[in-house]
Write a structure and sequence with these properties.
The chain has 249 residues and is mainly alpha-helical. The chain contains eleven helices and three strands; from the N terminus they run H-H-H-H-H-H-H-H-H-H-E-E-E-H.
């Protein structure tokens, strides 16, 4: 059973949890006492289903998804109390996104804790996805340990504060399709038309799909991505940056 852990693994997990630097007495006490049941809870957050079909991070990831959204909502309420509900939803979508989770996971070095089976070890295309999922599972484990989102907010609020300011200063970088649509509407133009071409058959290829954007029948920009959505987003971002350079936005 993969959740029977040795002293070396316990030390590794404890060292990792310390590095999160969560300013909580309860969290510090948990690390100090090295409660084995709590350590096993965190260990499970780092086990991929390719290693163990039964005991893996999927249930903790499920918890983490809900906890993350609630913790982000609390952060936004406290930081931006005057923000409209629509703007709150848009901001929250950015600070709990899969890309954001993957970035967080890389920053905290979670990959060195993840246990994968041979199949996943050889799959470079799933690497970022697994990092994001394990990070979400870690958030679920923190919640399960304390039955509270307090420690999650104590950990993530400072990170969210910085990331939120970046998003609010340049929202088109994160939500380019919505910004482009609103610009077209403000100018009385037709809505953008996105035309996708599959360039490559390789999963995970960052240029697998090409997207051309047409406005009022004219081709305005192009972009690439590993999915339809990513190609569309990148093409919209290219166009918005061009419009900004031309002084049209």
């Amino acid at each position: 059973m993969k959740n029977i852990i040795n002293e070396k693994r316990i030390i590794q997990i404890i060292s990792f949890l310390k590095s999160l630097d969560i300013k909580s007495k309860r969290f510090s006490e948990m690390i100090k006492t090295k409660n084995i049941s709590e350590i096993k809870n965190f260990n499970q957050a780092f086990i991929h289903s390719s290693e163990d079909k039964i005991l893996n991070y999927e249930k903790l990831e499920f918890f983490g998804d809900a906890v993350l959204r609630l913790a982000a909502s609390k952060f936004i309420e406290k930081k931006y109390p005057q923000m409209s509900v629509g703007d709150r939803s848009e901001l929250r979508a950015q600070i709990v996104s899969d890309e954001w989770l993957t970035k967080l996971g890389k920053n905290i070095g979670i990959e060195k804790l993840i246990i994968k089976g041979p199949k996943a070890l050889g799959d470079e295309n799933s690497k970022n996805t697994i990092i994001g999922e394990a990070t979400e599972a870690l958030i679920g484990a923190i919640y399960n340990t304390f039955d509270s989102i307090q420690e999650v907010n104590l950990w993530l609020n400072d990170i969210w504060e910085e990331d939120s300011e970046i998003f609010l200063k340049a929202p088109y970088k994160f939500n380019s399709k919505t910004v482009l649509q609103e610009w077209c509407q403000s100018k009385g133009f037709d809505l953008p038309i996105y035309k996708i071409i599959e360039v490559s058959k390789q999963n995970g290829d960052p240029e697998r799909f090409s997207c051309n954007i047409f406005i009022n029948g004219l081709k305005e920009s192009s972009g690439f991505g590993k999915s339809h959505k990513k190609a569309e987003t990148n093409a919209a971002k290219v166009l918005i940056e061009k419009l900004i350079a031309q002084g049209k936005i």
